[in-house]
Design goal:
By secondary structure, this protein is an alpha/beta fold. The protein contains 10 helices and 7 strands. Methyltransferase required for the conversion of demethylmenaquinol (DMKH2) to menaquinol (MKH2).
Length: 233
C-alpha cells in the first residue's frame, strides 16, 4: 500500500484500511497508549460510563479491534459482541480475550438481525468507515427500540491553546512517532490526516439525526480533542 493511496483525503478503500490495521494489530493498543500519553485509558473509562452497561444486556462494540474497549463492558455483566473488519485485529483479540465473542463484520452491512442489541458503540473507528451515515444507520437498525448508541471519536478542540498545540501535533508528531515505533508508519500519517479531516462535534451530531437517532448529546474530553456522542432509538 503506497502512502499516496493511504491518504485520508482520498476514498477510504475498505481493503486498504483493513490491511493497515491487520499490520498494526499486535502493537496497536501499546501504540495508542504511548501516543496519547496514557490518557486513552481515561477516555475509555468515560466512554464506558456513557454506555452504562448492565448485566444481561447485549452490546455491540463495533470496530472493536483487539477487544480492549469490550472488556469493561463484559466485566459489567453485559454480553458483548466485538465486531471488526480486520482479521488481524480479530485474531489478536481472540488470543488476548478468549472470553469475548469476536465477529467479522463490515459496518456498512452488519451481520446481525434488526433490533438485536440494547446498545451499540464504536470508539475511534467511525472516521475510518467510508460512509459515516450508512454506518450510523446500520448501527440504528441492529439496536432495539429504546436502545442507545455511544461514539467516542477524535474531534475539534474547543480551547484555544489546545487547538493550536493539536494542529501542530497531528501532522508532525503522530507520523514521527509512527516511524519510530510502528511496523507500518504510513498508517500513522493516515491516522493524523483522518482526524484532521473529521467533522466537528455539531456536524457529527447532525449525521446522527439525519439517520433517525434521537436526543443526540455529546461531551467533550480533554478540551475537545475527543468527543463522546450519545443518542437513542
Amino acid at each position: 500500500m503506497s502512502s499516496h493511496n493511504a491518504r485520508a483525503g482520498l476514498d477510504k478503500k475498505a481493503d486498504q484500511v483493513q490491511d493497515m490495521f491487520d499490520k498494526l494489530a499486535p502493537r496497536y493498543d501499546l501504540l495508542n497508549t504511548l501516543m496519547t500519553g496514557g490518557i486513552v485509558n481515561y477516555w475509555r473509562k468515560i466512554t464506558t460510563e456513557a454506555i452504562a452497561p448492565k448485566p444481561g444486556e447485549r452490546i455491540l462494540d463495533l470496530a472493536a479491534g483487539t477487544g480492549t474497549s469490550s472488556v469493561p463492558l463484559a466485566e459489567a455483566g453485559a454480553k458483548v459482541t466485538a465486531c471488526d473488519m480486520s482479521n488481524g485485529m480479530l485474531a489478536e483479540g481472540r488470543k488476548r480475550y478468549p472470553q469475548l465473542d469476536f465477529v467479522y463484520g463490515d459496518a456498512h452491512e452488519l451481520p446481525f438481525e434488526d433490533g438485536t442489541f440494547d446498545a451499540v458503540t464504536i470508539s475511534y473507528g467511525l472516521r475510518n468507515i467510508d460512509d459515516t451515515e450508512k454506518a450510523l444507520s446500520e448501527m440504528r437498525r441492529v439496536t432495539k427500540p429504546g436502545g442507545r448508541i455511544v461514539v467516542a471519536e477524535f474531534s475539534t478542540p474547543t480551547v484555544a491553546p489546545i487547538k493550536v498545540a493539536y494542529q501542530q501535533f497531528l501532522p508532525r508528531v503522530i507520523p514521527a512517532l509512527g516511524y519510530l515505533v510502528s511496523p507500518n508508519p504510513t498508517a500513522y500519517a493516515y491516522l493524523a490526516e483522518s482526524i484532521a479531516a473529521w467533522p466537528n462535534q455539531e456536524d457529527l451530531g447532525a449525521k446522527f439525526l439525519n439517520v433517525g437517532w434521537k436526543n443526540v448529546e455529546y461531551r467533550n474530553l480533554t478540551g475537545g480533542i475527543v468527543a463522546v456522542h450519545r443518542a437513542f432509538k
